[in-house]
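retry 2 of 3: previous attempt timed out while embedding zinc ion. Reduced batch size to 1 and resubmitted. Inputs unchanged:
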Amino acid sequence: MARRTRVDPHLGTVVHIVADRQGRPNLPIDGCPFCVGGLEAPEPYEVRAFKNRWPALEGGACEVVLYSPDHESTLATLPVEHIGRIIDLWCERTVALRGLPGGEHVVVFENRGAEIGATITHPHGQIYAFDHVPDRPGRMLRASWAPEPDPGDRLVTTISGWRAWCDAVPVFPVSVRLAPIERVPDLPALGPAAQTGLARALSGIFGALEQLFGEPLPYMMWVNQSPRTSSQWPDAWMNIEIVSPWRAPRLPRHIAGVEVATGEYFVPVDPADIAARLRALIG
Ligand SMILES: [Zn+2]
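retry 2 succeeded.
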């Protein structure tokens, strides 16, 4: 089946028709492919990136990032030093993918939990390189996105040069934003101190998120960062979004018809309440 990228002529919505991905396995047949000795990890590793066998993009690139050889580990349980190695790999792959012809905009992301559609539980994320700047990051860049100077009662934590808060305008019940207090455009521009700070911040936030509802939280995480043509975006300020559909344990809030119809959302929790609970858990 031909793969096509289509743009709605009225709304500008971009849809990648990837029907041939239906052939990919939902669950591996012969054990975990990401454990050492598995299909995608034949040799011992600490962290590892490789090309996705089932790429979703035509004019770009798709990679998988293995966080750890330990099948049971998570960003909530991995040591801070190890999270630093994952961030190292994010930086290295951002640079490498930008070196490809289709590497204009690199998105580092993670889907975790069956509800989010993660088919393999082994701790891993993904990286897509787009040959253009997609609409949402483009809008953030054109609006010169910057951290809220004072999130007030939505502040979650300030740690090692990074600030985390619950978004004032959340589309999902849990919507945590993490950004460096001093502007950094993208992952490769992080100095050693900022990188260590990010590892500490991620460790603290995921530790708290894991306890928020008393059981592992399904979530999506992604990094917003400058495109390759960074000179065109002098205000670019990297940030990380972590969102979950859960509003209570095992109770997802589904995006409803009226929300899809209008592009306006109804969120059944106050982000200040989520922030207060996360603050208490981070301690
Ligand atoms: Zn595994």
